[in-house]
């Protein structure tokens, strides 16, 4: 079965693919922005703590399920759920649905980055304020459909070529290239005037910013940055070599993901500082956003660097953004593809064509109207991911057989039980706690911020309205 | 896999292909750029500025365009200008003009200098699709040279009378109130950061 499903040829290939899944737009743009807005190093310390308490246990739980079962998400739960396997399989469906809804818009976002990469080298869009105008034209429209189509086709091509022949080959090129890009710009930024202000913006600790709101933002960032609850890590782990250690590889993935995010801050903020854009409303304040930083403020900063250098750095940055996005998109599409292969015995290329076609078609709607993008995101997060992460972790801790043993394999010390207990208690409780408290006690309760960062309030309000709580 | 099964899969692939073509066609043909934008009426209460003075020349009152305004759908500006000349000679005039950020103007008309206590109103100074190429119907033709953070300028131009031998000729006073009663514009909908952004 393993041969038919495919397998990563090397540990390096697996880690690059998994890091490629985890590292995306959130790492490169959102995380640095959160460091800047929410207390700098103080936020980073909290984030690292939550990575150990919530992120790593959930990640290792998902990976263990994949490696032990050697199956795609639905089959993994069915197989490991024992006599209630059919009921547990619904959690696999949740993961797959989360991946599907995210990929409906993720290829669109990757298309934005790809378009900006090409436009950087065209004279028409190289000028003051042009990034904002171009972004206005890039968010939606026929050209957005085109670039979304290009990205989807490339993603399908990679996935159709198989685990080792497509995903591994692509990611062992793309991810080192991304690291080089980030490293190169970090070094370049080091020599820019005003870089100290840039570092201060993301590293200067401000413990007064550690509000419940910001802690919940950190939890949300941990979930989404590690691709949790979307079946991607479970699916990739099902292609691991049996000799590999889930714990070692999971820790490598988790810390590499965080490392890239921190480096991204060291790449972006000195550049913004150089251009005097640290206080730009696209970067900081109530209207700040990842997209505003990436597609409005940074193009302006690159332009202000002047001619050749600015263009090269800008182009390379958007190439890196595209690589980060498409490597995540590949992992998302692989989830339903693997389900089709496992359950319908389909040829991989046919499964990839079906999923790719659906991704493209639904992505077209997000390409012509941003409200669709928002809706896909909310459905993925509020319906599938949160519940999926909580129950998957709970399942891995309490019901799945052999998780502790799997986590200990390849290690000298026995730390698997630590993670299992985290999966049984702290991790799902934190996830559910954030969900419930944020959802039901939001608004004017004084706990309104709890959970806002992870985006659970909307669903909570919806439920409250349905139950006439309001 | 039986042959029948294979045919079903192929049919599904063909169906997905048709769906993709259909989605593309509908997306391109029926793409409504305004659907991705929202109309916001700014502000809830009318913008009003008042100024007054004496002297010759022009006065500029500025109404700041709201942030993120990408295209104006409609703009209604009312200007009430009251001027009083020290004497009532002939030949000069008051003139009121509203200038959009792109430089296009809306003339409110003139009143003769010979009249005192003049009121000039521009009851419906309206741009339905200002500036050219920047209206809600064609954002793809955005003139990137125009910053819509630029103010809307109301210009009061006072032309001196031709007869200059009358004493006190340059003495006049005025007050002007500019009301942008309903300043409706289309602002780009900022797609929020996806939470599931990896």
Features:
heterodimer, A: 470 residues, mainly alpha, B: 198 residues, mainly beta, 4-stranded antiparallel sheet, 1 helix, 10 strands
Task: Quickly describe the structure.
The complex is a heterodimer of chains A (470) and B (198). With 470 residues, chain A is an all-alpha fold.
Describe the protein's architecture and organization.
The complex is a heterodimer of chains A (470) and B (198). Chain A has 470 residues and is an all-alpha fold. In chain A, 76% of the residues lie in helices and 0% in strands. Chain A is built from 21 helices and no strands. In chain A, helix 6 packs antiparallel against helix 15, helix 9 runs antiparallel to helix 15 and helix 14 packs antiparallel against helix 15. Chain A is globular. Chain B has 198 residues and is mainly beta. In chain B, the strands form two sheets. In chain B, strands 1, 2, 4, 7, 8 and 10 form a six-stranded antiparallel sheet that branches. Chain B has a four-stranded antiparallel sheet with strand order 3-9-5-6, with no helix packed on it. In chain B, a hairpin with a 5-residue loop joins strand 5 and strand 6. Chain B is rod-shaped and about 105 Å long. About 37% of the residues of chain B have low confidence. The chains are: A mainly alpha (470), B mainly beta (198). The interface between A and B is large, with 65 and 38 residues.
């Amino acid at each position: 079965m393993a041969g038919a499903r495919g397998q990563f040829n090397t540990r390096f290939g697996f880690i690059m693919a998994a890091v490629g899944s985890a590292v995306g737009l959130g790492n490169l743009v959102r995380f640095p922005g959160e460091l800047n807005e929410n207390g700098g190093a103080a936020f980073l310390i909290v984030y690292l703590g939550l990575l150990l308490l919530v992120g790593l246990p959930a990640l290792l739980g998902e990976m263990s399920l994949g490696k032990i079962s050697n199956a795609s998400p639905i089959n993994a739960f069915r197989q490991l759920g024992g006599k209630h396997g059919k009921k547990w399989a619904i959690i696999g469906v949740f993961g797959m649905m989360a991946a599907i809804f995210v990929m409906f818009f993720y290829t669109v976002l990757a298309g934005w980055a790809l378009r900006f990469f090409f436009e950087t080298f065209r004279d028409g869009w190289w000028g003051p304020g042009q990034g904002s105008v171009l972004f206005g034209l890039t968010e939606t429209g026929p050209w957005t459909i085109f670039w979304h189509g290009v990205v989807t086709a490339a993603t399908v091509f990679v996935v159709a070529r198989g685990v080792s022949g497509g995903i591994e080959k692509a990611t062992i090129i793309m991810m080192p290239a991304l690291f080089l890009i980030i490293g190169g710009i970090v070094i370049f930024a080091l020599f820019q005037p005003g870089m100290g202000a840039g570092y201060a913006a993301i590293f200067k600790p401000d413990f007064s910013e550690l509000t419940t709101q910001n802690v919940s933002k950190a939890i949300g960032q941990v979930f989404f940055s590690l691709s949790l609850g979307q079946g991607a890590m479970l699916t990739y782990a099902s292609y691991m070599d049996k000799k590999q250690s889930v714990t070692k590889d999971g820790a490598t993935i988790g810390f590499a993901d965080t490392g890239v995010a921190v480096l991204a801050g060291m790449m972006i903020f000195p550049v913004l500082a150089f251009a005097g854009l640290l206080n730009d409303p696209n970067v900081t304040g109530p209207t700040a956003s990842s997209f505003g930083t990436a597609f409005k403020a940074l193009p302006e900063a690159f332009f202000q660097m002047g001619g050749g250098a600015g263009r090269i750095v800008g182009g390379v940055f958007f190439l890196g953004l595209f690589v980060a996005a498409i490597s995540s998109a590949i992992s998302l599409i692989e989830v339903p593809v693997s389900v089709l292969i496992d359950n319908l015995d389909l040829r991989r290329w046919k499964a990839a064509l079906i999923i790719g076609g659906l991704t493209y078609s639904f992505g077209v709607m997000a390409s012509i109207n941003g409200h669709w993008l928002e809706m896909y995101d909310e459905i993925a997060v509020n319906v599938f991911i949160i519940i999926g992460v909580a129950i998957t972790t709970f399942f891995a801790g309490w019901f799945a057989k052999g998780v502790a043993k799997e986590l200990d394999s390849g290690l000298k010390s026995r730390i698997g039980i630590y993670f299992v207990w985290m999966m049984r208690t702290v991790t799902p409780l934190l996830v559910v706690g954030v969900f419930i408290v944020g959802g039901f006690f939001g608004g004017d309760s004084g706990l309104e911020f709890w959970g806002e960062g992870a985006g659970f309030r909307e669903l909570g309000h919806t439920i409250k309205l349905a139950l006439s709580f309001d | 896999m039986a042959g029948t099964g294979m045919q079903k899969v192929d049919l599904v692939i063909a169906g997905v292909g048709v769906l993709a073509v259909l989605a593309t066609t509908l997306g391109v043909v029926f793409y409504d750029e305004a659907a991705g934008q929202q109309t916001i009426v700014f502000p809830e209460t009318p913008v009003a500025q008042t100024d007054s003075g004496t002297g010759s020349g022009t006065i500029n009152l500025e109404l700041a365009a709201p942030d993120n305004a990408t295209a104006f759908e409609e703009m209604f500006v009312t200007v009430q200008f009251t001027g009083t000349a020290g004497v009532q000679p002939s030949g000069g005039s008051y003139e009121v003009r509203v200038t959009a950020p792109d430089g296009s103007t809306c003339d409110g008309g003139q009143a003769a200098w010979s009249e005192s206590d003049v009121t000039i109103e521009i009851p419906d100074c309206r741009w339905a699709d200002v500036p050219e190429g920047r209206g809600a119907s064609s954002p793809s033709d955005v003139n990137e040279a125009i910053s819509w953070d630029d103010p809307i300028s109301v210009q009061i131009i006072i032309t001196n009378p031709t007869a200059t031998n009358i004493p006190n000729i340059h003495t006049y006073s005025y007050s002007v109130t500019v009301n942008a009663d309903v300043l409706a514009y289309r602002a780009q909908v900022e797609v929020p950061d996806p939470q599931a952004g990896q």
